[in-house]
Design brief:
460 residues; mainly alpha; two-stranded antiparallel sheet; 22 helices
Length: 460
C-alpha cells in the first residue's frame, strides 16, 4: 500500500509538472531558474512528499526542454537559456525552408537523451556514493573550487571570478544584518533574489533616464511564424525513426558523455557536444539537423545528470544545475536543509533511496515525454501562434514576481523582501555587465554560507 501511495504521488505530481512546464516552454525567454525553482520551492513548502517533489521537478525539466524547441525553431527566438545554443542552427534551417525538420529533430533528440540520462546518471552517482563522506567533510572547500571553476568556464571568465569576491562579501553582510534583525539567517530569499536578478536589474534600469536608453525599442518586435508541415500519419512519429542512424548514435553518445559530468556549465556542454558529435559532418543540411538533435538532447541529459549525481551521491548542490534550478531539492528551509557549519544534509539525498530516484525519475520523465512529444509534433504551429498573439509575457513574469514576493515575506517579512531585492539588483547587474550568470552567483551564495565561516575559523 505504501508503494502504491508513493506511485500515485509521483504520477500525479509528474503530470502537474509536465503540463505546467510543457506550456511554459512555449513562452520565449522564460528562464529555467526563475520559473522551475520558485514553483518547485512552492511545492515543497506546501508539504508534498519527497517522491512527489522529485517527480514534479524531473517532469518539469524534461517537458520544458521539449517544448522550448518550438519558439526556437518556428519563431527564431530562444525558448529559454539552454535553447540559445540551438538558435543559429535553427535559423539556418529556417532559411532553408525546413523549420519543421529542425523542430522534429530537436525534440526527438531530447526524447532519446532523456531516457538514456536517467539510468546512467543514477549509475554514475552510485559509483561516487562511497566517497560521499569524504566529499562532505571538505564541502566548504569544494564549493570554493566549484565556484572558481564555474566562473572561469562561464562567458565572463576572469571578470566573473573577480566580481564573485564582492558579491560573496555582500551576501555575508546582508546575512549578518538579517540575522541581527530577525534573530535567524535567511536562505530562500537569497536564492530567489538571485533567480530574478536580471528582471530586477532591468526594472531599475528602466527607472533611470540613462538606463532607459539601453532598454528602449523603436518599434514592437515582429516575428514570422513558419508554415505547419506534417509528413506522417497518425498521432505522432516514432522518435527513433525521425533520427537517422548517425543522428541517433551521435545523440546517444552525447547523452552518455554529458550524463557522466556534473560540474560544467550546461550551456557549454550543449555547445561542446554539438561540435564534437555533429560538427564534423560534411554535408551542410545533415550537419545542421544532426546538431539540432544532439544539442537539444544534451540540454536534457545535462540537466538530468547535474541534478541526479550530486543529489544521490553527495546531497550538496555541487553543480551549476544543482546550484540553480534544482537548488530547492537540496536546500528549502525548514523542509530541506544544509547545515552551514558541518555541511550535514537533510534533503532528498537522505529521504529517497537510489532505486526510488531511478524508478520515479524514469516514471516522471516518461510521463513528461508522452505528454509533450505528441503535443509538440502535432500542435506546435497552433500553440506558438496562440502564445504570441494572446499571452502576455509581462503578465507571466509579473505572476512569478508576485509568487517570489509572497515566499520572501513568508520567510522573513519585509527584511527578507529587501534582501531579495538588494541581492537581485546586484546579481542582475553583474549578470548584465560581467556575464556572471546565476549558476556562478548561486555558488557564490554557498561560498558565503560555508566557505567564508571555514576560512574565518581557519585563521581565527
Amino acid at each position: 500500500m505504501e508503494l502504491l501511495e508513493l506511485a500515485l504521488w509521483a504520477i500525479s505530481m509528474a503530470l502537474a509538472g509536465a503540463v505546467v512546464f510543457g506550456l511554459l516552454g512555449l513562452v520565449s525567454g522564460t528562464d529555467e531558474t526563475a520559473t522551475i525553482a520558485p514553483l518547485t520551492l512552492l511545492v515543497i513548502l506546501l508539504g508534498v512528499p519527497p517522491v512527489g517533489v522529485f517527480a514534479f521537478f524531473m517532469a518539469a525539466i524534461a517537458a520544458k526542454h521539449i517544448t522550448h524547441a518550438i519558439p526556437t525553431t518556428l519563431l527564431g527566438i530562444p525558448g529559454d537559456t539552454l535553447a540559445a545554443p540551438l538558435l543559429r542552427d535553427a535559423q539556418m534551417l529556417r532559411e532553408l525552408g525546413v523549420p519543421h525538420i529542425a523542430l522534429r529533430k530537436a525534440i526527438s533528440g531530447g526524447v532519446v537523451a532523456a531516457l538514456i540520462a536517467v539510468p546512467l546518471a543514477v549509475l554514475f552517482a552510485m559509483i561516487l556514493t562511497p566517497f560521499s563522506d569524504a566529499i562532505s567533510s571538505v564541502a566548504p572547500w569544494l564549493f570554493l573550487a566549484a565556484a572558481v571553476l564555474i566562473a572561469v568556464l562561464s562567458k565572463g571568465r576572469w571578470g566573473a571570478l573577480i566580481a564573485l569576491v564582492p558579491f560573496v562579501l555582500i551576501i555575508v553582510g546582508l546575512q549578518g544584518w538579517a540575522t541581527g534583525v530577525l534573530g535567524k539567517g535567511l536562505s530562500i530569499s537569497f536564492f530567489l533574489g538571485i533567480a530574478i536578478g536580471p528582471l530586477i536589474a532591468d526594472l531599475v534600469l528602466a527607472s533611470s533616464p540613462v538606463g532607459r536608453k539601453l532598454l528602449k525599442r523603436d518599434a514592437p518586435r515582429t516575428f514570422e511564424l513558419a508554415a505547419d508541415v506534417r509528413t506522417w500519419k497518425g498521432r505522432a512519429p516514432n522518435p527513433l525513426r525521425v533520427l537517422d542512424r548517425g543522428q541517433l548514435s551521435g545523440t546517444a553518445a552525447a547523452a552518455v558523455v554529458s550524463s557522466a559530468t556534473f560540474v560544467f556549465s550546461p550551456v557549454a556542454m550543449t555547445v561542446l557536444m554539438g561540435e564534437t558529435f555533429g560538427g564534423r559532418i560534411k554535408n551542410g543540411y545533415r550537419r545542421l539537423t544532426s546538431m539540432m538533435a544532439i544539442k537539444n538532447g544534451t540540454t536534457e541529459s545535462t540537466y538530468i545528470a547535474e541534478t541526479l549525481i550530486p543529489l544521490i551521491a553527495i546531497g550538496l548542490p555541487l553543480s551549476p544545475m544543482a546550484a540553480g534550478p534544482a537548488n530547492p531539492l537540496f536546500n528549502a528551509p525548514p523542509v530541506y536543509t544544509i547545515d552551514a557549519e558541518t555541511g550535514t544534509t537533510n534533503n532528498l539525498h537522505n529521504m529517497l533511496e537510489p532505486w526510488q530516484f531511478l524508478v520515479f525519475g524514469l516514471i516522471a520523465v516518461i510521463i513528461a515525454l508522452l505528454i509533450t512529444y505528441p503535443f509538440a509534433m502535432t500542435q506546435a504551429h497552433r500553440a506558438a501562434s496562440w502564445i504570441m498573439r494572446k499571452v502576455s509575457h509581462e503578465a507571466i513574469i509579473g505572476a512569478f514576481a508576485g509568487l517570489i514576493a509572497v515566499i520572501c515575506l513568508y520567510e522573513g517579512g519585509p527584511v527578507a523582501l529587501l534582501v531579495a531585492v538588494s541581492i537581485g539588483l546586484v546579481g542582475g547587474l553583474l549578470n548584465r555587465m560581467f556575464q556572471v550568470h546565476t549558476g556562478v552567483q548561486f555558488m557564490g551564495y554557498y561560498v558565503a554560507a560555508l566557505t567564508v565561516p571555514a576560512i574565518g575559523a581557519l585563521f581565527g
